[in-house]
Amino acid sequence: QVQFAESGGGLVQPGGSLRLSCTASGFIFEKTAMGWYRQAPGKRREFLAGITGGGTANYAESVKGRFTVSRDNAKNTLYLEMKSLNLEDTAAYYCHSVGTFEPWGQGTQVTVSA
Hints:
By secondary structure, the chain is an all-beta fold. It has no helices and ten strands. A hairpin with a 5-residue loop joins strand 5 (46-51) and strand 6 (57-59). The protein is globular and about 40 Å long.
């Protein structure tokens, strides 16, 4: 059974930083491209960053230069380092295997507020 468990969200002030983690199970993690996504209230889920099993990353323009995706294949864990957070980054953040139709995890809430 494929599962994604996100953690690390919280309340942060504008300009602050957070590191999100995602532990995945039920598939061969090291061979699977992974991605981070977010969904704000009333908006569609959007892609933020992806990373291949070998570590090649790509980013949405909205987060390029501020967010960094990485992975530890030995731990089946995906990370998202976020800096220079602004109010528009407030959302529920999710990880998922890219291009698959597995169920989504619960996500982790990031709230940017003064």
